[in-house]
């Protein structure tokens, strides 16, 4: 869910205007792609504040949730979240909702999720689910099934209405969460933070194992052959925006020390440009684009890209040596 801003760097005490200004100017020039876009998603995680706040160790939920989101993003899946108070109408905009060890739900949440499945959605449940109410009183299976409207089978797929409920006892391990680096900057003498080695390969393997039978590669909305490039798709009025971000050096490969003034080298002047990339993008029904353009804060002019359309998928060839950090693909 976007707030229309690209750049969020914080370098107190240091002038980085030469890095910041191109991104600020770029987001103004291409504002339509950043303000209130409709995200294309392959799966959406259920964000349960009640579970986070009511269980003895909130990390048991939040770390599984964040590890799942990180792993899905770095597997180049379109990722979103749904909230506790989302309506059935909003839930039905998400074709697959993942509930990772969501222990605490009210009856109305269960009823809404049941209606979402009846109307054609897929609810993927991993681990424990809805065993407590918001007052932390316990529920038995029958009470869960009654509120949901469906007695789903454990470690199996249960058809319900026009949708299905998939349950697995497998859980996303909390230790797969890639913690942020907290380099203290709001004090007279700044302190460094410890860099935790990248967990991306393990995260990808976990996501592949859990969702291989649920999301096949033909269903993925945006395929990017370069696993170091994060690709996401957003629909804006009569256009589609594909965001490409090089995350290769955003996480350390080994233990080390990080300061708040450190620059991610792929976004600095003189960084090595990424090689050519091929994208495969699923198009919405009835959308027949005429042009595909690449824009990046790193160069002044747009570049027209070649593309092919077969059935409802578009193949785009992005040439190499154009950008090192970020590029926007404008499909009109």
Mind explaining what this structure looks like?
The protein has helices spanning 17-29, 49-54, 59-73, 88-91, 107-118, 141-148, 200-211, and strands spanning 38-39, 43-47, 79-83, 96-100, 122-126, 157-160, 163-168, 193-195, 222-224, 229-236, 239-246, 256-258, 277-282, 292-295, 303-304, 307-310, 313-318, 326-331. The model is unreliable at 1-5 (pLDDT under 50). It is built from 7 helices and 18 strands. Strand 6 and strand 7 (163-168) form a beta hairpin. The strands form 4 sheets. It has a 6-stranded antiparallel sheet, with no helix packed on it. Strands 3-2-4-5-7-6 form a 6-stranded mixed sheet, with helices on both faces. Strands 9-13-17-16 form a 4-stranded antiparallel sheet, with no helix packed on it. With 332 residues, the protein is of the alpha+beta class. Helix content is 21%, strand content 26%. The longest helix has 15 residues, at 59-73.
Task: Give a summary of the structure in a few sentences.
This protein is of the alpha+beta class and 332 residues long. Helix content is 21%, strand content 26%.
Topology diagram in text:
Blueprint: H1 17-29, E1 38-39, E2 43-47, H2 49-54, H3 59-73, E3 79-83, H4 88-91, E4 96-100, H5 107-118, E5 122-126, H6 141-148, E6 157-160, E7 163-168, E8 193-195, H7 200-211, E9 222-224, E10 229-236, E11 239-246, E12 256-258, E13 277-282, E14 292-295, E15 303-304, E16 307-310, E17 313-318, E18 326-331
Parallel strand pairs: 2-3, 2-4, 4-5, 5-7
Antiparallel strand pairs: 1-10, 6-7, 8-12, 9-13, 10-11, 11-18, 13-17, 14-15, 14-18, 16-17
Helix pairs in contact: 3-7
